[in-house]
Amino acid sequence: MIPLRPARESEVVLAFLRAETDRWHYDARIQNLLHALGITNQQLIDADPRNEYYNVLREGVLDAFRGYLSRTGVFTKFPKEVAWQRVELGPGELAGRLRYVRSGEWMPRSDGTRQPQRVAEKFARDELDRKTAETVAGIRKRLELGEILPEIVAVEGEGTDLILLEGAHRTTAYVSLQWPKSVPAFIGSSPAMRDWLFY
User: Fold this and answer.
1) Alpha helices of 67-178 — where are they, by DSSP H?
2) Bridge partners of 59?
3) What is the pTM of this model?
4) Fold of the CATH domain 77-195
5) Residue range 75-109, pLDDT digits in tens
Protein backbone atom coordinates (compact mmCIF):
# COMPACT_ATOMS: atom_id res chain seq x y z
CA MET A 1 0.00 0.00 0.00
CA ILE A 2 1.34 3.39 -0.99
CA PRO A 3 0.01 6.24 1.19
CA LEU A 4 -0.49 9.37 -0.90
CA ARG A 5 -1.99 12.00 1.42
CA PRO A 6 -4.49 12.57 4.24
CA ALA A 7 -8.06 12.69 2.95
CA ARG A 8 -11.14 14.65 3.96
CA GLU A 9 -14.23 12.72 5.00
CA SER A 10 -16.14 14.65 2.34
CA GLU A 11 -13.98 12.94 -0.30
CA VAL A 12 -14.94 9.55 1.10
CA VAL A 13 -18.64 10.45 1.03
CA LEU A 14 -18.27 11.59 -2.57
CA ALA A 15 -16.52 8.33 -3.52
CA PHE A 16 -19.44 6.42 -1.98
CA LEU A 17 -22.00 8.35 -4.01
CA ARG A 18 -20.07 8.06 -7.25
CA ALA A 19 -19.75 4.31 -6.78
CA GLU A 20 -23.37 3.70 -5.81
CA THR A 21 -25.30 6.03 -8.10
CA ASP A 22 -27.66 3.23 -9.12
CA ARG A 23 -28.84 2.92 -5.52
CA TRP A 24 -29.83 6.52 -4.96
CA HIS A 25 -30.62 7.80 -8.47
CA TYR A 26 -33.89 5.87 -8.32
CA ASP A 27 -34.82 6.64 -4.71
CA ALA A 28 -37.94 8.83 -4.89
CA ARG A 29 -37.23 10.56 -1.55
CA ILE A 30 -33.76 11.62 -2.63
CA GLN A 31 -34.85 12.69 -6.08
CA ASN A 32 -37.70 14.76 -4.65
CA LEU A 33 -35.24 16.49 -2.29
CA LEU A 34 -32.78 17.29 -5.07
CA HIS A 35 -35.58 18.49 -7.34
CA ALA A 36 -36.84 20.83 -4.63
CA LEU A 37 -33.33 22.26 -4.28
CA GLY A 38 -32.90 22.58 -8.05
CA ILE A 39 -29.90 20.23 -8.12
CA THR A 40 -29.28 17.40 -10.57
CA ASN A 41 -27.69 14.05 -9.77
CA GLN A 42 -24.67 15.00 -11.87
CA GLN A 43 -24.19 18.31 -10.09
CA LEU A 44 -24.17 16.47 -6.77
CA ILE A 45 -21.36 14.09 -7.72
CA ASP A 46 -19.37 16.57 -9.83
CA ALA A 47 -19.21 19.41 -7.32
CA ASP A 48 -15.96 20.26 -5.52
CA PRO A 49 -15.57 18.18 -2.31
CA ARG A 50 -14.41 21.40 -0.59
CA ASN A 51 -17.81 23.01 -1.24
CA GLU A 52 -19.53 22.72 2.15
CA TYR A 53 -23.04 23.27 0.76
CA TYR A 54 -22.74 20.25 -1.53
CA ASN A 55 -20.96 18.28 1.18
CA VAL A 56 -23.95 18.67 3.50
CA LEU A 57 -26.27 17.55 0.70
CA ARG A 58 -24.10 14.52 -0.05
CA GLU A 59 -24.05 13.51 3.60
CA GLY A 60 -27.85 13.69 3.63
CA VAL A 61 -28.11 11.52 0.52
CA LEU A 62 -25.66 8.97 1.93
CA ASP A 63 -27.62 8.93 5.17
CA ALA A 64 -30.89 8.34 3.33
CA PHE A 65 -29.76 5.15 1.66
CA ARG A 66 -26.86 3.96 3.82
CA GLY A 67 -27.41 5.41 7.31
CA TYR A 68 -24.28 7.56 7.28
CA LEU A 69 -25.30 10.36 9.69
CA SER A 70 -27.67 8.30 11.83
CA ARG A 71 -25.08 5.51 12.11
CA THR A 72 -27.53 2.84 10.99
CA GLY A 73 -27.39 0.29 8.18
CA VAL A 74 -23.82 -0.42 7.07
CA PHE A 75 -22.65 2.40 9.38
CA THR A 76 -24.12 0.87 12.57
CA LYS A 77 -21.70 1.63 15.42
CA PHE A 78 -19.17 3.03 12.93
CA PRO A 79 -16.85 5.49 14.75
CA LYS A 80 -17.63 9.18 14.45
CA GLU A 81 -13.95 10.11 14.39
CA VAL A 82 -12.00 8.37 11.63
CA ALA A 83 -8.66 9.35 10.11
CA TRP A 84 -8.78 8.86 6.33
CA GLN A 85 -5.96 8.65 3.83
CA ARG A 86 -5.82 8.35 0.06
CA VAL A 87 -3.70 5.38 -1.01
CA GLU A 88 -2.84 3.13 -3.92
CA LEU A 89 -3.35 -0.61 -3.35
CA GLY A 90 -1.02 -2.94 -5.21
CA PRO A 91 -2.39 -5.89 -7.23
CA GLY A 92 -1.42 -8.44 -4.60
CA GLU A 93 -3.17 -6.49 -1.85
CA LEU A 94 -6.57 -6.71 -3.55
CA ALA A 95 -6.76 -10.44 -2.89
CA GLY A 96 -4.27 -10.58 -0.03
CA ARG A 97 -5.42 -7.81 2.33
CA LEU A 98 -8.98 -6.80 1.46
CA ARG A 99 -11.80 -8.53 3.33
CA TYR A 100 -15.56 -8.32 2.92
CA VAL A 101 -17.72 -6.95 5.72
CA ARG A 102 -19.09 -9.41 8.26
CA SER A 103 -22.58 -9.45 6.73
CA GLY A 104 -25.34 -11.85 5.81
CA GLU A 105 -24.48 -11.47 2.14
CA TRP A 106 -20.72 -11.63 1.85
CA MET A 107 -20.05 -14.19 4.55
CA PRO A 108 -21.92 -16.99 2.72
CA ARG A 109 -20.69 -15.84 -0.69
CA SER A 110 -17.11 -16.21 0.54
CA ASP A 111 -17.85 -19.46 2.46
CA GLY A 112 -17.15 -17.63 5.71
CA THR A 113 -13.63 -16.59 4.70
CA ARG A 114 -14.44 -12.94 3.79
CA GLN A 115 -11.77 -13.29 1.08
CA PRO A 116 -12.34 -11.84 -2.41
CA GLN A 117 -10.23 -14.63 -3.91
CA ARG A 118 -12.80 -17.21 -2.80
CA VAL A 119 -15.67 -15.31 -4.43
CA ALA A 120 -13.64 -14.69 -7.60
CA GLU A 121 -13.05 -18.43 -7.86
CA LYS A 122 -16.78 -19.10 -7.44
CA PHE A 123 -17.47 -16.51 -10.14
CA ALA A 124 -15.11 -18.36 -12.51
CA ARG A 125 -16.96 -21.63 -11.80
CA ASP A 126 -20.37 -19.95 -12.27
CA GLU A 127 -21.32 -20.71 -8.66
CA LEU A 128 -22.49 -17.25 -7.57
CA ASP A 129 -26.10 -16.14 -7.39
CA ARG A 130 -27.29 -14.56 -10.62
CA LYS A 131 -27.49 -10.96 -9.40
CA THR A 132 -23.98 -10.96 -7.92
CA ALA A 133 -22.51 -12.70 -10.98
CA GLU A 134 -24.14 -10.22 -13.36
CA THR A 135 -22.90 -7.25 -11.29
CA VAL A 136 -19.32 -8.57 -11.23
CA ALA A 137 -19.45 -9.39 -14.95
CA GLY A 138 -20.65 -5.86 -15.73
CA ILE A 139 -17.82 -4.30 -13.73
CA ARG A 140 -15.27 -6.58 -15.39
CA LYS A 141 -16.48 -5.39 -18.78
CA ARG A 142 -16.14 -1.74 -17.76
CA LEU A 143 -12.61 -2.37 -16.54
CA GLU A 144 -11.65 -4.21 -19.72
CA LEU A 145 -12.93 -1.24 -21.73
CA GLY A 146 -10.58 1.04 -19.79
CA GLU A 147 -13.07 2.81 -17.53
CA ILE A 148 -11.62 4.39 -14.39
CA LEU A 149 -13.79 3.37 -11.44
CA PRO A 150 -14.31 5.25 -8.15
CA GLU A 151 -12.03 4.60 -5.22
CA ILE A 152 -12.54 1.59 -2.97
CA VAL A 153 -13.37 2.52 0.62
CA ALA A 154 -11.99 0.31 3.40
CA VAL A 155 -10.92 0.49 7.02
CA GLU A 156 -8.04 -1.04 8.93
CA GLY A 157 -8.91 -4.38 10.54
CA GLU A 158 -6.95 -7.05 12.37
CA GLY A 159 -3.27 -7.31 11.48
CA THR A 160 -2.85 -6.19 7.88
CA ASP A 161 -6.50 -6.79 6.92
CA LEU A 162 -8.47 -4.00 5.26
CA ILE A 163 -12.25 -4.35 5.60
CA LEU A 164 -14.31 -3.17 2.65
CA LEU A 165 -16.84 -0.50 3.54
CA GLU A 166 -17.66 0.16 -0.12
CA GLY A 167 -16.45 -1.67 -3.22
CA ALA A 168 -17.07 -5.39 -2.64
CA HIS A 169 -18.28 -6.07 -6.18
CA ARG A 170 -15.49 -4.01 -7.72
CA THR A 171 -12.88 -5.79 -5.62
CA THR A 172 -14.28 -9.15 -6.74
CA ALA A 173 -14.05 -8.01 -10.36
CA TYR A 174 -10.46 -6.79 -9.93
CA VAL A 175 -9.41 -10.07 -8.30
CA SER A 176 -11.20 -12.23 -10.86
CA LEU A 177 -9.34 -10.39 -13.64
CA GLN A 178 -6.03 -10.71 -11.77
CA TRP A 179 -5.82 -6.94 -12.17
CA PRO A 180 -2.18 -5.97 -12.84
CA LYS A 181 -2.36 -2.29 -11.84
CA SER A 182 -2.62 -0.36 -8.59
CA VAL A 183 -6.11 0.62 -7.49
CA PRO A 184 -7.02 3.91 -5.74
CA ALA A 185 -8.62 3.67 -2.32
CA PHE A 186 -9.55 5.58 0.80
CA ILE A 187 -8.47 3.83 4.01
CA GLY A 188 -9.89 4.77 7.41
CA SER A 189 -8.51 4.08 10.87
CA SER A 190 -9.83 4.55 14.38
CA PRO A 191 -9.12 3.06 17.83
CA ALA A 192 -12.89 2.49 18.07
CA MET A 193 -13.20 0.62 14.76
CA ARG A 194 -13.69 -2.71 16.56
CA ASP A 195 -17.10 -1.41 17.72
CA TRP A 196 -18.36 -1.25 14.13
CA LEU A 197 -21.08 -3.88 13.65
CA PHE A 198 -19.51 -5.26 10.46
CA TYR A 199 -15.88 -5.27 11.67
Assistant:
1) 91-96, 106-109, 116-124, 130-144, 168-176
2) none
3) 0.91
4) 3.90.1530
5) 999 999 999 999 999 999 999 999 999 988 999 99
